[in-house]
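Researcher: Next entry: Metallo-beta-lactamase family protein (Siphonobacter aquaeclarae).
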Amino acid sequence: MKLTFWGAARQVTGSMYLLELEDGYRILIDCGTDMERNIEEEDENRRFFPFDPATVNLVLLTHAHIDHSGNIPNLFRDGYEGQILCTSATYDLTRLLLLDAAHLNQRKLQRAVGDSNKKKKRMARLEKKGDLYLDKQVEDALDNFVPIAFSQKFQVREGIWVNFIPAGHLLGAAHIVLEIAENGRKKSICFSGDLGRKNYPLHEEPHPVPEVDYLVCETTYGSRLHEDERTPEEALSDVIRRTCINIPGRLIIPAFSVGRTQALLFTLNRLYSEQGFKPIRVFSDSPLAHSTTRVYEKNVKLLNADAQAFRQKHGSLFDFQNLTFIESEKASRAISNHREPCIIISASGMISGGRVEQHVAANISNPYCTILLVGYAAEGTLGWRLMNGQNTLKIKDREMNVMAKIEKIDIFSGHGDQHDLLRFVKAQSPEKLKQVFLIHGEEGSMQVFANLLNENGYRHVEIPEKGQTYEL
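Model: Predicted structure:
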């Protein structure tokens, strides 16, 4: 069989891998949005997918995040007619994320009316390339999702078995293990998806993966270790005391709506419910995050034992005194200037659009405001600029002085670090493992991790280029 790397190859986003069996059966693992893609440099007549979706027989989805699921509607639009296998929680979250993306696409198209010719031309190219799917394309795709239970080997057809093993990165996230029998021989391959970390709020720790012949491993933190060794409660309470209690300040936390916001709200709930922490007004400003919290509550049995015990004792994972969920954009604009000490949690986590951009713009020159960065920010985003200490910031064509305090903690990062990744790989025997493929990371991070694996006895480590094919 052959494995071709069509996404997240020597970069972080756009996960997409095509496995072709000797009898022509084709399995696509993940179908994510490439957030590092530059459409201006693309050939206008190039096909959206580098393969014919109509020839794909099955799609397997590791988890819901848009860089793994975001191009599924386009796959159906371009001819795919098969099923999407994933866990039930991944289906629930993917539905929210794809519909949210479709709504944003609709707004982009509406705003393009009356815009400059340059922007109109770019929007036309996006439409032609197929990026801007709408609700109908999402619903067409969702009709073909088939939920599969965790940790139960499922036979796809004769000679093909799949197992979704909890990965701990996000509700429903899985390592996918495929066993394939061809010509009297059985081969196994594991796609890591995104690896979670130990002791993360809400999520189970990653489950062990059985020994396989081939391992496709993410490397987001392949060259880095998590710096903060405190508990989430200790880290967050320290920031809140300094920014909202010792001084009457305002704390803005840019956070992804799916996964990160739920971890923050749960941690705040624990502070208020179990540690006697003084309730401060908290605004959760993301409709997508609110929908996601309902999915988490619905799937509480998939969460870790700590979260389940808390829910049984207190009745809710996320609802606590002085918490307000913001729905309308008018209400969102109003809280940017709330007069009392408060915490605003809003998307997006990198401050690359979304409601949080307005909150940052309204408060970036306020010395009584603190902006707390709690996750990865891609180069060039507002979050990255703040993280790197820029003294001025341009937001929506306005140049502003950065007078707010900027802090960062990595305790809420949902990715395992270098130690976690190494532990994941070392569950495999260096003698049995035929090849390790490193994906989903910056190229430098991949190389550092490849060298570390070599030092630990793993000699067959590959860093594929986009479009590169391997015979397994």
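Model: Note for the record: The chain has two domains: 2-223+414-471, 232-408.
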